[in-house]
Amino acid sequence: MTSYDDAPWVTDGAPRLRPYAVTGGRTAPTRRLALETLVIAARTLPRVPLTPEHDETLRECRAGPRSVAEVAGRLGLPVAVTKILLCDLLDTCALILTAPAGPPDPTDPYLLEKVLVGLRNL
Amino acid sequence: MSDYAISDDSFVPLKIVIAGGFGVGKTTMVGAVSEIPPLTTEETLTAASVDHDSLDGVPEKDATTVAMDFGRITLSAHHLMLLLFGTPGQKRFWFMWDHLASGAIGAVVLADTRRLADCFAAVEYFERRGLPFVVGINEFDDAYHYTPEEVKAALHLRSDTPVMCCDARATSSARHLLIKLVEHAHARSVAARAAPPAEPAAEAGAASASESAQPVPTSPPRSPA
Ligand SMILES: Nc1nc2c(ncn2[C@@H]2O[C@H](COP(=O)(O)OP(=O)(O)OP(=O)(O)O)[C@@H](O)[C@H]2O)c(=O)[nH]1
Ligand SMILES: [Mg+2]
Fold first, then answer.
1. Distance from the CA of B65 to the center of ligand 2, in angstroms?
2. How many domains does chain A fold into?
3. Model's pTM, two decimal places?
4. Can you give the residue range of the structural domain that contains A52?
């Protein structure tokens, strides 16, 4: 029987070197982003030179809105590291937040009705 | 955040959590309903770093990488994006669950009748948190067939908590679970808005409450079926 706590997807003490290198040694994002925050690439090109990781991040966000969680998954980088890269791109206006109005109310009946209609029409 | 331009491609993100015990089919379900192949999203966490995003000063030995499944469903006509998160199963990652449950529509708890006790923790957690959830009995081929009513009784669920059989591998079945969840969340929300609050935890404010870890029992006071 497999133990609950030996699950294979947990890696304690994962190597930290690469993430730090990717963010140029920075350890904190310039603003608070949530896992579900959506960003999309701006139509204008960034005015500053980009690192390969920034480039890759931007590419992921060209096709449509992408959540922080999805970008992190695609880049294969921890969420905290991804947030730093995303903030760089937001700060240079290469990325845009798609819902600046703030988090939605997930108990809003009207919103939930729209979700239901959408799901049933899939 | 108003210092950034507003995009035409404005979408509202809504989270749904897929929970349950080890090997119950969480990743399978995310993959069955997601419009993209499921991704693994990693958070590097310590208990101390949950409330802020700083990587600074986290001793390497205390850092744990928690992996969750990620998938999405875009409802373009409504400018909504459903974000599906498969939880890490271990009890020691409760704080991670708080992170995911905060602001979520609700949760699907997958149950395997061969190991029903494995989902007690998830059921207990979402009940305490007041987050709407449905239970999907993921029927494995060699499992004894229990009816939803039997499972509901064994889990001591509130009578209005939907329980249904499912196949997490099948898109239609997995999607049906999501629809049930949203119907349930909608019904609860309408009832809560119509009536004076009976359960503070179920109120609208709870969902957007602090993301900090709440005390959660590690051994739920439920007896196995
Ligand atoms: N017969 C049957 N098998 C299933 C079903 N759902 C999942 N499985 C199988 O069960 C196994 C475990 O499924 P996963 O989706 O990896 O489960 P999980 O909950 O993500 O597992 P962990 O992340 O390891 O906790 C896989 O081999 C699936 O193919 C189902 O509805 N019926
Ligand atoms: Mg899994």
1. 15
2. 1
3. 0.82
4. 19-120
